[in-house]
Structure formats: structure tokens, C-alpha cells
Amino acid sequence: MTNITILGSGFGALTAVRELRKRGVADDITLISPRDDLHYLPSSIWVPAKLRKAEGLKIPLRHYFAKHRVNFVQASVTGLRDKGRTVVTDQGEYSNDYLVIGTGGRFIKKLPGIEHALTICEGLPVSEAIDKRLDEMNGGTIAFGFATNPNEQGAMRGGPMFELLFITDSYLRRMGRRDKFKLMFFSPAPKPGIRLGEKAVDKILADMRKRGIETHLGHKMVRFEEKKVVTEGGEIDADMILFMPGMTGPAWAAATGLPLSPGGMIAADETCAVKDHPNVWVVGDSGSYPGPDWLAKQAHQADLQAEAVAHNIAAKLRGEPASHKFKPELICIIDTLDKGILVFRDEKRSFVLPGSKIFHWLKRYFEGHYLSVYR
Asked: Terminal CA-to-CA distance of the chain, rounded, Å?
């Protein structure tokens, strides 16, 4: 029987499993990942505000794998051979007929002193560390910032940092402690988050001013120190530094012969297929894709790419062309703990809806709805 191997246990990889079965694909599916649970990182922003606990955001996948007849292999990918037909792991080698790469990207950790900054999207333990540090602080300055991959401007994840900033502000106000803290937002971009759209950035920066959040924008970053952010435009003294670096591709990809983008991601076409590697696709943060300049690194886009890949594998199994293109779409609710700002973009429309309690509760509802598939 044909074997379809999926690498990773994040959003794109797990959606690919579901969408393949939904399309009637009955062939063997092997999923290789070091984790047998889904870490729902979109809600990690709520951990420091006590709205969520990190353990509650770890969803065991054994029932999901059983339901969809997945052969799970607990291993870390270290490379590929034979144009992707052989996956090399720390637990051995595995052959396949079709390969979907969804192992996620890496944060670029080259800035000197970056060990002094906490990156919330690196994992749930970081959200717990931020929570602990915030509880221990009696006051002081907290610096929030993000940057991109200089070789690939779209390889970034800025939305969670906006959310963490606003949520921290709201939480400190709720606890009656905001007057003891100075919140500072920094970015080398003069208009950070411009991929959300001009109106969205204007709204976000206006909200910062309204909340008394200071900004340090448009200056190239030089280094971090234990209690300092150093840029070419000056220094920021900070008691805690929360920073999201730009992203690049998986470390193991460079030695595989896979085509890489300037930013180090696996290069794919509009169908998510990898050039010169038959029956190999990539979804989510591992890949670099053609499309509009606002194409986002977010779970929703990974899901849309996984749907396209499942459609194409099902087509190939039927002897039909694998020509289905993924849909570029950005949907983001920038949460502020009590409200949310809705941002939407596709190839025809772009709009921003102002802060509303409805969007905060919609984000919480979506979390439960999305995770119900896995629970």
C-alpha cells in the first residue's frame, strides 16, 4: 500500500492528516514528530495574565491518531535522502511514496545577547517563565519587540507580540499595578506589522499611545544586554525583555538538497510542491511560498496550505493533476485581554474592525472549537 509520511505535529501537519482522510484517502499515513501532543501556542499569550495555564494548552494526540489511523513515530528529523523518499531521524530511516514537511520554522538567534530575551512562541515553558517574572516584579520597565528575517521580510511573527503587550497592560491595570511599570515597544521597522495593513498598524500604534505605551521604532538592533536593548538609535533600559526574532527554516534542511529561499525556508510553488522533488510538499512555517507580500506565518495559513496539499495528494492517487493552489488569507484577532481587534486580508479585501469584547470572546470560542477536533 502507498505510504504518505507527514513530518511534524503542529497545525499544518495535523490538518494534512484530517484533510487526507476527509478526501477518502485510505492509504497508510505515518507521522514523525518528537512530540505526541499539540501545543496550542496561540493561547500562550494568556498564560501571564492567568487566563490560561500552560499544561491546559498541551493536547494529547493519541485519540486523534487512532481516529485517523495514523502510524505515529516519535523521532526527530535529521535529514532526507533520495529526493525525499527517505526520511532520516534520530531513531532510524523511514521510506515513503509521498512526503509532507510540516516541522515548523526556527527563530533566528544570532543577535548578540539574545539569551537575555524571552520569546513566547518558542514554547509553553517560556509563557510560564514570563508569568513567573511578572509576578516577581514590583515595578520597572518591560520592553516588547519583534523583528524579521533580513533576507526574507515575510518570515516573522509579530501579532503575538502586539497581543502580549496589550494583554500585559490590561492585566497590570486589572491588578492595580500599571502605575509601577513602564511599557516600551521597539522594532527596527518604522511601521511594525505593516503586513496587517496600513489601517491596522495605525490603529495599533494609536492604541499604544492611548495606553501610555512608549515606542522606539525604525532603528536597527545592535545587541541585548541583561537589562538593556541596544539599537543604532539609542538604548532602552529594561527589567524584562520580551522579543520575537525573525524566522528561518529547519536546521536539517540545508544539507538535504531541498531548494531554499533567501531566508533559509524550503522553497515551494503555489501548490506547496517542492521544486525538483516529486511528491514532496511543504506546509506552514517550514516553507517559503509565492503570493502577496502580506502572506502570513500563522496557523490559519498553514491550515489552508495543508488543505491544498491534501487535495493534491488525493488527486495524484487518482491519477489526476496535482494543481490545486493554496488560498492566501490573513485572519487575526489581536487580543487585549478584555477586547479584540479583528484584521482580515485576502486578495480582494482588507479591513480592520475596532476593539470589541465580542472579538475577545470569539477568539476564546475559536480556541475551544479548534481544539475539540483533537480532544
From this structure: 29
Phi and psi at 214, nearest 5°, equal -80, 155
d(CA 141, CA 319): 61
Cα 174 to Cα 31, 140, 337, distances in angstroms? 44, 17, 10
Distance CA 245, CA 263 (A): 13
Residue 215: exposed, middle, or buried by beta-carbon count in 10 A (0-12, 13-18, 19+)? middle
User: What digits encode the pLDDT tens for the residues 164-223?
Assistant: 999 999 999 999 999 999 999 999 999 999 989 999 999 999 999 999 999 999 999 999
Give every CB contact of residue 361 below 8 A, 6+ residues apart in sequence.
none
Query: What's phi and psi for 186, nearest 5 deg?
Result: -130, 150
* Mean pLDDT computed over every residue of the chain: 97
Residue 20, pLDDT > 90, answer yes
pTM recorded for the entire structure: 0.96
Pairing verdict, β 228-231 and 287-288: unpaired
Indicate whether 289 pLDDT > 90: yes
- Quick one: average pLDDT of 125-131? 98
- Name the burial class of residue 137, with classes exposed (0-12), middle (13-18) and buried (19+) by CB atoms within 10 angstroms of its CB: middle
pLDDT average, residue stretch 293-320: 97
Among 335, 356, 287, residue whose Cα is nearest residue 13: 287
- Set out the domains of the chain in order of their start, with CATH numbers: 3-106+248-317 (3.50.50.60), 109-246 (3.50.50.60)
CB 310 within 8 A of CB 23: yes
